């Protein structure tokens, strides 16, 4: 459709439209300045501020993205939600959308190609908290599914909190089961409420999708299409932790343990396991450890890059804008049942529709099926096939390899069809040529041919030896260059194994196409062959090929030819030559070669005699001879070009140097180009090169001048841009440095890049991992940094989660999710006490951070973590108990707790007192001499000296006289150490993966075992009987009283004996007065009556009101009852639905939040 | 589970320092046996024991086990703690022997290192304190370790008697920068320090004269300082030395030095130092031979990017160092000729992919 040319648009040249356009054009001449100009100065100011602020919000801390832009690993899309919410349905719908295939049963990760530049790995997360933690650490995008008809559940919030502490990936919310809400208004309010909650949890404006209902077991196609569009344009910001650790999500697991070993040990032996997956994060390097959460720390025995099972469309296969339909069919899901291929734990099953009968042509037969069918067509035995088959080692080989049928080792090679063999040899050949390109700088054509012949002969020789070492080395694994097809495992068949892998001669890596090796003066490759062959000669004397005849001469010639161009990398890393032998002449090398011949069997004894007393020193001893030559005047002149005054040197590089004199250090990119560009002109014509150099110099000067004077702003970038540029430059350099290097040495130097599909071989894997393998639990392989393999005390800043209902107690075990690891440890909580000491806390403070210190594997400072008291599914309430960040790593800790030593005075002088019961020996007192002490009443003092007589008593002085009843105490600090307890959460090793229990609390053990808490009699509460204190009256002696001044004398008077006047007098009233009093009495009586009546009335009203209230209460209660009924009915429906939907593996809902 | 870090095994007494340093940095345990086991005087020497003691002081939680005969040691490294430390170096080796590994470790300590070392400041085996101050420390600046990096020479102490004292201050860094140093540039200045203790102060001037007689022909920017310490600051034995360095336009440093020998005139010492310097300059590269290991180590410890450096041929010590780095960190270098078009080019381009080593010891403020 696209190829047909469209009719071009022809604008009208006359008529009304044209006139209208013309008219419009008259009005605006170009850009209208006034259109966006602010009206007032204030507005202008405001607008300017706003723009600047907006610019600042755009900025983020520049982070290096270690994931390569070309061929990135698939994006991990995790589908998370409570059971019964529709996770599997969504995954099926999405996979259907991308691959047009319906998967019946999805287990483990599924990788699909979603676009020209993007692949997606879908992984479904079950409801186990362990899985949620692991998924949270690796997911790039989380599709968080929420049952719209039910609301958010606790697990959702727990998962969000886990995400928060491990770097927040992108989250898209998806509301399902919205079809269950029948009323439109309810639907609207539900959506609104859920959206509001979701936004507060993620960020304002976070994307929330609504999926209405299920049609044909899938969500509606349009809704899925919309969702997939959002997924495909999603941008990801690198997360710090993932950007510094390599990791992979294993999508396939194979057990390589010998069956016999498993059988004899009844399956209890440690296993050798291979895991497959895309490398993500940073480069995965050999020699480091990996951690598999739920299993433990494991050593990588071997890692190989495999062909991509789900490759991105290449540039030439996809010229078009859209992904072709063919590519859409690619899906890689080894653990699920995809396209008829089932990867079981340790076997691959091919499922062919119909049956394997010949002539069954109605079913479409793919390539794989065809191959299986073809197996039935065999009409000759294997032996016949072997005897007939012809193997050409190289495409250029003139005649096929002739085999001796008695040599049974060839069977390894021959049980495959011919075309595959051709493949293999082609590969081989191409690789040989590649190597030639690398090494053959000066090797002329004829020489190359010669070498080729030799190679062939070497191979033939090896084929004939029949030694087991060769055979095993041939049987290695499929290598990177071989394209492995996604869904067919036949590529693993023996025939094409290892023909482009290295052969292993006694632990040294030597390439088969060994012409490169022969270039090395040490000629370890060539000589090695010789060595090997000498062994062979022992039993095959007559076999002496002609290539050996002149080998030594050729080697010599080669070494003299390439004396200068040593392959240092190879010499240093892949030979056992001593440093002196590498640096100096060949005589030593010859000697060493002789030694090396037998180092298959024997350890070479190093000749350490002469340098036994060589000192480990950094200054080389200068040789007299070398210094002597500097007495020569010519010699002195010869290095003049190395100085700035020296001008151009003797070589072409002199000009280059001169040109870069003025360049500041660090302008390396330009230098690179110069280096590349320089040699050609210098070789062709000196005059042009000089002119060029001059021009370049001028250009550089001009640039410098411009930078200084012309426009200082234009060339200057702001800090942010500068940093970003720097990063981009470094990344470009990283890419460029290993561009031309072959894959193997590249893996040696830089490891496996992100995006490479690797196979990791792990040894000593606990057998339970294999026995209890469940593909629905994700297997994450996290690479560890060297520091993270160590153990130590980790100090963290921690805060109890505000939704966690209990406080955290000191010395209670806590399960941490820190780095890749999940483990239980025992923290000690502390707070900084005035920057003097770290003081232990018994409980975590409310609404505040505190420190915690625990023993465990080290993580880098600034790593976030979250902690749990229990990971079990049936734990009530919110399970994330604390979150925090790592602050410090150490091998010792200094946390103290307060201890008060108390004593009582037994003899008190003026300001001095003798204190007993604080210490038990004089030695203890001596330790505390000069310490501050205090009484309860606040009188301060000091410990002076131990008293000789009652042991442990001492003399102390105070600032005032203390009382006999005072308690004296000494405040001291007692240092405590966290317990060295580390218990990794080995959930993947259990058959019941969500039932992991670590160390329990004492109380819990007692509860579980039904043991009563032991009761100390002294700890029981008894009634405290405090006798009332009797104080004697204060008696002042008469004598003293007499001498006191009047003011201080106690005033003591006898009570009055006689009646007073007021009591004695009689009252006689006037008639006027009498009248007035009577009136007053009457008024009072009236008033009293009035008040009484009023009160009565109020009482009546009160009773009435009470009645009314009771009536209202009753009404309200009725309403309440109805509402409760409603809720219960809904809950009942919901649980009924759950029971219908659930397949019984997840746990039921806990409660609505 | 897997509490015991993997053990790296070595034998022989050679390259002890770099192996200990690599072990402490990588956290891998190291076991070195057959230490002079064939010797008449088997086992560790006093300076090696002293070095182990110093490393114990600098670190926290390090466990060092020395076998009964002293021919085998096992080092379980702890964390590098730093802080104020004082150490008396034995008179069998100079301060440089002890300071070199400390310089490699101290940027990755928990607290800034403030180390006081007492002993011999200059001898014929190790870098003198002058070179450490003027050449080694600037090399650290290439990796972004600069603020507060200082070596103070409090007292000088010549060979048999010693009595010198230096203070080394080093800041801590989170991560070292990736090096990209491929342009050696041209030499723009020459500096030098001639010192004389407990001898005629004129000796240093005589050395300077001799050196200038050769160097004056190249560039005018030559400053050779005469550094005379007197009284208590001059240590216990007489001695004098001349250390020279050249700096290029891209701040590549090359250095050489010569120290007093009995029966040799100061002029000859001056000439010897100068000729050694010219030999070093002639070898070229961006880093001289004495500092190859330091620079390569810092490149390995850089961020996960490609670091490049142009140097001359590796010394035997460097070759062993490269192998040791591979066994500790698993990092190998790509070493190719710096100029592939020129067969006469002796310079090599060392490039490696940094391990992304982050100073885990550093406390988060």
Structure, described:
The complex is a heterodimer of chains A (1153) and B (365). With 1153 residues, chain A is an alpha+beta fold. Among the domains of chain A are: 378-486 and 507-597, no CATH class; 785-893, Translation factors (Elongation Factor Tu (Ef-tu), domain 3, Beta Barrel), CATH 2.40.30; 901-965, Thrombin, subunit H. Among the domains of chain B are: 187-283, Dihydrodipicolinate Reductase, domain 2 (2-Layer Sandwich); 288-353. Helix content of chain B is 28%, strand content 28%. The chains are: A alpha+beta (1153), B alpha+beta (365). The interface between A and B is large, with 96 and 105 residues.
Any key phrases for this structure?
heterodimer, A: 1153 residues, alpha+beta, Elongation Factor Tu (Ef-tu), domain 3, Thrombin, subunit H, eight-stranded antiparallel beta sheet, seven-stranded mixed beta sheet, 35 helices, 35 strands, 17% strand, extended, disordered C terminus, B: 365 residues, Dihydrodipicolinate Reductase, domain 2, four-stranded mixed beta sheet, 8 helices, 18 strands, globular, GTPase activity (chain A), ribosome biogenesis (chain A)
* Fourth-level CATH superfamily of the domain at 187-283 in chain B: RNA 3'-terminal phosphate cyclase, insert domain
Characterize the overall form of chain A. Answer: extended
Number of helices of chain A: 35
Which blocks of ≥5 consecutive residues of chain A have pLDDT under 50? Answer: 352-360, 403-549, 557-563, 586-612, 650-684, 1145-1153
Task: Give the mean pLDDT of chain B.
Answer: 89
How can the largest sheet of chain A be summarized?
8 strands, antiparallel
* Terminal-residue CA separation of chain A: 54 Å
Please describe the topology of this protein.
The complex is a heterodimer of chains A (1153) and B (365).
Chain A: H1 16-27, H2 41-58, E1 75-80, H3 87-99, E2 110-113, E3 119-124, H4 129-138, E4 141-147, H5 154-165, E5 170-176, H6 184-201, E6 208-210, H7 221-233, E7 246-250, E8 252-255, H8 259-264, E9 271-278, E10 280-281, E11 289-292, E12 296-306, E13 331-332, E14 337-338, E15 341-343, E16 348-350, H9 367-376, H10 382-388, H11 411-414, H12 418-439, H13 445-465, H14 468-474, E17 503-505, E18 508-510, H15 515-519, H16 524-539, H17 551-561, H18 568-574, H19 579-583, H20 586-597, H21 624-628, H22 633-638, H23 653-659, H24 668-677, H25 679-684, H26 686-710, H27 712-715, H28 719-737, H29 743-750, E19 757-765, H30 767-771, E20 779-783, E21 791-800, E22 814-818, E23 821-825, E24 828-833, E25 837-840, E26 850-857, E27 864-868, E28 880-890, E29 895-908, E30 912-916, H31 922-927, E31 932-935, E32 940-946, E33 954-958, E34 968-976, E35 982-984, H32 1002-1009, H33 1038-1043, H34 1061-1064, H35 1071-1141
Parallel strand pairs in A: 1-3, 1-4, 4-5, 5-6, 25-29
Antiparallel strand pairs in A: 2-3, 2-13, 7-10, 7-20, 8-9, 9-19, 11-12, 11-20, 12-19, 14-15, 15-16, 17-18, 21-26, 21-28, 22-23, 22-27, 23-35, 24-25, 24-26, 27-28, 29-30, 29-34, 30-33, 31-32, 31-34, 32-33
Helix pairs in contact in A: 3-7, 4-5, 16-20
Chain B: E1 7-11, H1 16-26, E2 29-33, H2 46-58, E3 59-60, E4 63-66, E5 73-76, E6 79-80, E7 83-88, H3 95-105, E8 113-119, H4 129-141, E9 150-155, E10 164-170, E11 180-181, E12 187-197, H5 202-215, E13 222-229, E14 239-248, E15 253-259, H6 266-283, H7 292-300, E16 306-311, H8 316-329, E17 334-337, E18 348-353
């Amino acid at each position: 459709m696209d190829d047909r040319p469209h009719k071009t648009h022809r604008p009208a040249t006359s008529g009304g439209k044209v006139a209208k356009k013309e008219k419009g054009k008259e009005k605006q001449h170009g850009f209208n300045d006034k259109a966006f100009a602010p009206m007032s100065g204030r507005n202008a100011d405001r607008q300017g501020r706003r723009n600047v602020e907006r610019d600042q919000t755009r900025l983020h801390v520049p982070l290096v993205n270690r994931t390569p832009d070309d061929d990135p690993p698939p994006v991990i899309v995790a589908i998370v939600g409570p059971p019964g919410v529709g996770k599997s349905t969504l995954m099926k719908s999405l996979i259907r959308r991308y691959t047009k295939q319906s998967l019946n049963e999805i287990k483990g990760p599924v990788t699909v190609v979603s676009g020209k530049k993007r692949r997606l790995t879908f992984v479904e997360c079950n409801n186990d908290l362990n899985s949620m933690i692991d998924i949270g650490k690796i997911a790039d995008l989380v599709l968080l599914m929420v049952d719209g008809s039910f609301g958010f559940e606790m697990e959702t919030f727990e998962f969000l909190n886990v995400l928060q502490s491990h770097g927040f990936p992108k989250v898209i919310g998806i509301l399902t089961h919205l079809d269950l809400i029948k009323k439109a208004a309810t639907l609207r309010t539900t959506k609104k409420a859920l959206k509001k909650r979701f936004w507060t949890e993620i960020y304002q404006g976070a994307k929330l999708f609504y999926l209405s209902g299920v049609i044909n077991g899938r969500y509606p196609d349009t809704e899925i299409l919309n969702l997939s569009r959002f997924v495909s344009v999603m941008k990801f910001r690198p997360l710090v932790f993932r950007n510094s650790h390599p990791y992979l999500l294993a999508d396939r697991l194979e057990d390589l343990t010998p069956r016999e070993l498993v059988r004899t040990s009844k399956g209890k032996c440690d296993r050798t396991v291979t895991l497959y997956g895309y490398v993500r994060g940073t480069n995965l390097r050999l020699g480091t450890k990996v951690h598999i959460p739920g299993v433990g720390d494991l050593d990588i025995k071997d890692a190989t890059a495999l062909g991509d099972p789900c490759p991105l469309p290449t540039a030439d296969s996809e010229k078009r804008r859209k992904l072709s339909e063919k590519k859409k069919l690619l899906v890689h899901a080894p653990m699920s049942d995809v396209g008829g291929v089932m990867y079981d734990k340790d076997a691959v099953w091919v499922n062919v529709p119909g049956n394997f009968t010949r002539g069954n042509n109605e079913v479409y037969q793919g390539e794989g099926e065809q191959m299986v069918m073809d197996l039935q067509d065999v009409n000759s035995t294997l032996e016949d096939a072997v005897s007939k088959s012809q193997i050409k080692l190289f495409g250029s080989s003139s005649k096929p390899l002739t085999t001796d049928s008695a040599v049974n080792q060839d069977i390894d090679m021959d049980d495959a069809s011919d075309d595959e063999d051709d493949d293999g040899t082609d590969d081989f050949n191409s690789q040989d040529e590649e190597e030639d390109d690398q090494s053959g700088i000066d090797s002329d054509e004829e020489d190359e041919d010669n070498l080729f012949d030799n190679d062939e002969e070497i191979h033939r020789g090896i084929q004939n030896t029949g030694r087991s070492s060769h055979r095993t080395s041939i049987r290695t694994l499929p290598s990177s260059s071989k394209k492995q097809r996604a869904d067919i495992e036949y590529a693993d068949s023996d025939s094409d194994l290892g023909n482009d892998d290295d052969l292993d001669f006694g632990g040294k890596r030597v390439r088969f196409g060994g012409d490169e090796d022969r270039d090395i003066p040490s000629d370890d490759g060539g000589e090695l062959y010789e060595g090997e062959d000498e062994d062979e000669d022992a039993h095959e004397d007559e076999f002496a090929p002609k290539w050996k005849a002149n080998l030594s001469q050729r080697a010599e010639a080669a070494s003299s030819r390439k004396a200068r161009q040593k392959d240092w990398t190879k010499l240093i890393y892949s030979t056992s030559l001593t440093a002196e032998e590498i640096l100096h002449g060949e005589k030593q090398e010859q000697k060493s070669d002789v030694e090396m011949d037998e180092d298959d069997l024997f350890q070479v004894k190093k000749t350490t005699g002469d340098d036994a007393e060589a000192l480990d020193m950094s200054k080389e001893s200068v040789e007299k001879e070398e210094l002597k030559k500097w007495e020569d005047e010519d010699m002195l002149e010869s290095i003049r070009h190395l100085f700035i005054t020296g001008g151009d040197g003797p070589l072409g590089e002199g000009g280059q140097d001169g040109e870069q004199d003025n360049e500041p250090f660090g302008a390396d990119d330009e230098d690179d180009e110069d280096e590349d560009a320089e040699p050609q002109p210098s070789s062709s014509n000196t005059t042009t090169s000089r002119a060029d150099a001059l021009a370049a110099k001028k250009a550089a000067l001009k640039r410098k001048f411009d930078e200084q004077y012309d426009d200082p702003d234009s060339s200057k970038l702001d800090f942010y841009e500068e940093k970003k540029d720097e990063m981009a430059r470094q990344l470009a350099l990283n890419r460029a440095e290993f561009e031309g290097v072959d894959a193997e040495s590249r893996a040696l130097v830089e490891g496996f890049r992100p995006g490479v599909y690797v196979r990791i071989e792990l040894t000593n894997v606990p057998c339970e991992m294999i026995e209890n393998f469940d593909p629905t639990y994700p297997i994450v392989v996290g690479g560890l940094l060297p520091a993270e393999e160590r153990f130590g005390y980790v100090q963290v800043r921690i805060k109890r989660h505000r939704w966690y209902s209990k406080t955290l107690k000191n010395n209670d075990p806590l399960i941490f999710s820190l780095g890749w690891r999940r483990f239980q440890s025992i923290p000690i909580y502390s707070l900084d006490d005035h920057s003097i000491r770290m003081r232990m806390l018994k409980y975590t403070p409310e609404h505040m951070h505190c420190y915690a210190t625990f023993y465990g594997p080290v993580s880098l400072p600034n790593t976030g973590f979250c902690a749990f008291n229990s990971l079990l599914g049936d734990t009530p309430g919110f399970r994330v108990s604390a979150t925090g960040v790592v602050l410090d790593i150490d091998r010792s800790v200094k946390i103290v707790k307060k201890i008060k030593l108390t004593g009582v005075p037994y003899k008190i002088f003026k300001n001095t007192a003798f204190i007993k019961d604080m210490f038990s020996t004089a030695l203890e007192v001596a330790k505390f001499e000069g310490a501050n002490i205090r009484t309860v009443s606040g009188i301060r003092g000091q410990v002076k000296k131990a008293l000789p007589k009652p042991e442990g008593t001492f003399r102390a002085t105070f600032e005032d006289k203390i009382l006999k009843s005072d308690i004296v105490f000494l405040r001291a600090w007692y240092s405590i150490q966290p317990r060295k307890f580390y218990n990794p959460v080995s959930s993947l090793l259990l058959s019941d993966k969500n039932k992991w229990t670590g160390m329990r609390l004492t109380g819990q053990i007692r509860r579980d075992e039904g043991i009563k808490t032991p009761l100390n009699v002294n700890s029981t509460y008894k009634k405290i009987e405090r006798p009332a204190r009797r104080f004697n009256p204060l008696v002042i002696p008469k004598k003293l009283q007499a001498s006191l001044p009047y003011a201080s004398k106690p005033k003591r008077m006898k009570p009055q004996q006689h009646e007073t006047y007021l009591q004695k007098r009689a009252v006689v009233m006037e008639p006027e007065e009498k009248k007035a009093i009577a009136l007053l009495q009457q008024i009072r009586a009236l008033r009293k009556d009035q008040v009484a009546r009023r009160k009565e009335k109020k009482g009546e009203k009160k009773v009435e009101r009470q009645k009314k209230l009771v009536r209202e209460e009753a009404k309200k209660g009725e309403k309440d009852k109805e509402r409760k009924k409603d809720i219960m009915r809904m809950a009942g429906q919901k649980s009924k639905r759950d029971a219908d939907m659930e397949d019984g593996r997840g746990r039921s809902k806990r409660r609505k939040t | 589970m897997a509490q015991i870090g993997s053990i790296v095994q070595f034998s022989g007494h050679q390259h002890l320092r770099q192996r200990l340093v690599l072990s402490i940095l990588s956290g891998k345990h190291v076991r070195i046996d057959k230490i002079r086991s064939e010797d008449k005087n088997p086992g560790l020497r006093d300076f090696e024991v002293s070095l182990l003691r110093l490393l114990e002081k600098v670190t926290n939680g390090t466990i060092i086990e020395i076998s009964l005969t002293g021919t085998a040691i096992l080092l379980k490294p702890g964390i590098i703690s730093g802080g104020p430390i004082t150490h008396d170096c034995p008179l069998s080796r100079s301060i440089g022997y002890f300071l070199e590994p400390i310089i490699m470790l101290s940027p990755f300590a928990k607290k800034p290192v403030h180390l006081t070392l007492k002993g011999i400041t200059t001898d014929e085996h190790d870098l003198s304190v002058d070179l450490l101050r003027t050449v080694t420390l600037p090399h650290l600046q290439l990796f972004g370790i600069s603020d507060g990096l200082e070596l103070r020479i409090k007292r000088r102490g010549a060979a048999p008697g010693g009595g010198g004292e230096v203070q080394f201050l080093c800041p801590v860094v989170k991560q070292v920068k990736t090096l990209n140093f491929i342009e050696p540039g041209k030499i723009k200045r020459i500096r030098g320090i001639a010192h004389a203790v407990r001898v005629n102060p004129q000796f240093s001037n005589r050395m300077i004269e001799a050196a200038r007689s050769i160097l004056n022909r190249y560039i005018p920017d030559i400053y050779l300082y005469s550094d005379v310490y007197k009284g208590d600051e001059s240590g216990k034995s007489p001695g004098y030395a001349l250390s020279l360095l050249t700096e290029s336009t891209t701040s590549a440093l090359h250095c050489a030095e010569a120290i007093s020998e009995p029966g040799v005139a100061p002029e000859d010492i001056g000439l010897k130092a100068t000729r050694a310097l010219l030999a070093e300059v002639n070898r070229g590269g961006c880093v001289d031979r004495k500092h190859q290991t330091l620079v390569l180590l810092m490149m390995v410890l850089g961020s996960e990017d490609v670091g490049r450096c142009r140097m001359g041929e590796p010394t035997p010590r460097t070759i062993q160092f490269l192998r040791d780095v591979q066994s500790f960190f698993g990092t190998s270098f790509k070493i190719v000729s710096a100029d592939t078009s020129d067969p006469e080019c002796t310079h090599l381009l060392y490039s490696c992919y940094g391990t992304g080593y982050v100073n885990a010891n550093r406390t988060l403020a």
